[in-house]
Design brief:
Blueprint (H helix, E strand, L loop, with lengths): L1 H24 L15 E7 L2 E10 L9 E5 L10 H9 L3 E5 L16 H14 L5 E6 L1 H12 L4 E7 L16 H8 L4 H12 L8 H9 L6 H17 L13 E6 L13 H6 L3 H11 L4 E5 L6 H4 L1 H11 L1
Parallel strand pairs: 3-4, 3-5, 5-6, 6-7, 7-8
Antiparallel strand pairs: 1-2, 2-4
């Protein structure tokens, strides 16, 4: 009887400990408990009958201002928190840096709306107009590269230079990735775990996994413990559909602003990769080829390639990337 009692107590303590661990790791879907490197401000917006807000950082230069601004567009699985070293380097070089969390991401609202790159671009223009910024360099990473491309196409007069860091959308995914509905993708998003995030990051994003990359996994997985995670998952599915249905790769030749591509050559990112066979995965998402092909499509574009680097050069090889970035500015 005593052994049974002790077993139950021990099991209860294990369950309690696990629950406490999960509670510690739990993040709200607007990342209130994720520390960003600089103060957050909000731009109020109204769309489809909803009042929403767009979070952003507005960071002043730490040295003599050069009168120029750089705007940073994050990737689909990230928010403004992963730009810390880029912001520091740019502000140390006299730039004002604007870092929005796009609607549906990071600390911004997660509304159920029709997501489109056109709409996101227009909200970023409104942010610039509100801040009195006439022209900006746009640096877009991953999905942010698709958005930055759309922004430059819509607002060339606002875009001083277009910088694309391992942008997705260099291929038209809907031509080879099987279609899944937003609802089907939502069911997939609901199954997200820390292990599934880590496995994807290891296979697609980095050439060599390092302990410091766990912080990225912690954010992506931490929200799954939130009671509001179904909302996050639904929005993630909606933005997956946006990427799938709204390619920019057919319009690269229409870009009219100076453009530089920064390409980690070992990147193998494919949106919808899990829907492909290994043989199909080997054919697509090969940035060592896609980078050059895209640079050839954009008038007068330059390309800077990084060996032994995957999807996120500014994190995997920060020194090399930041030297190339400042040199391009």
């Amino acid at each position: 009887m005593m052994k049974k009692f002790l077993f139950i107590v021990t099991l209860s303590l294990i369950i309690l400990t696990q629950a406490q661990a999960e509670k510690i790791d739990t993040l709200s879907i607007t990342l209130e408990n994720v520390k960003y490197p600089y103060p957050i401000k909000y731009l109020p917006l109204h769309t489809e009958g909803q009042d929403i807000k767009m979070a952003y950082m507005d960071v002043a230069p730490t040295r003599t201002a050069n009168g120029r601004t750089v705007m940073l567009f994050h990737g689909k699985n990230f928010g403004g928190y992963y730009w810390t070293e880029v912001i520091k380097t740019l502000t140390n070089n006299g730039f004002r840096v604007i870092v929005p969390d796009q609607i549906g991401f990071g600390k911004s609202s997660k509304p159920f709306i029709h997501y489109s790159f056109h709409q996101l671009a227009s909200w970023n223009k409104k942010l610039l107009d509100t801040l009195g910024i006439q022209k900006t360099v746009i640096l877009g990473h991953s999905m942010g590269g698709m958005l930055a491309t759309r922004f430059a196409l819509l607002y060339p007069d606002k875009t001083e230079k277009l910088l694309l860091e391992n942008p997705i959308g260099l291929e038209d995914y809907k031509t080879f990735v099987p279609y899944v509905s937003t609802e089907q993708q939502y069911q997939t998003e609901l199954k997200t775990t820390a292990e599934s995030v880590r496995k994807y990051y290891q296979s697609s994003y980095f050439t060599l996994w390092k302990p410091e990359y766990e912080s990225l996994v912690n954010v992506a997985a931490g929200v799954t413990f939130s009671a509001d995670y179904p909302t996050w998952a639904k929005v993630a599915a909606m933005t997956f559909t946006m990427i799938y249905e709204q390619p920019v790769c057919y319009e690269f030749n229409n870009i009219k602003v100076p453009t530089v591509l920064f390409i980690g050559k070992e990147d193998k990112t494919i949106v919808g990769k899990g829907l492909l066979t290994p043989d199909q995965q080997a054919i697509h998402g090969q940035y060592r080829f896609l980078g050059k092909e895209t640079a050839a499509k954009i008038p007068n574009a330059k390309i800077i390639e990084f060996d032994a680097c995957g999807h996120i050069p500014h994190i995997e090889i920060p020194t090399e990337f930041l030297v190339a970035l400042t040199g391009s500015l």
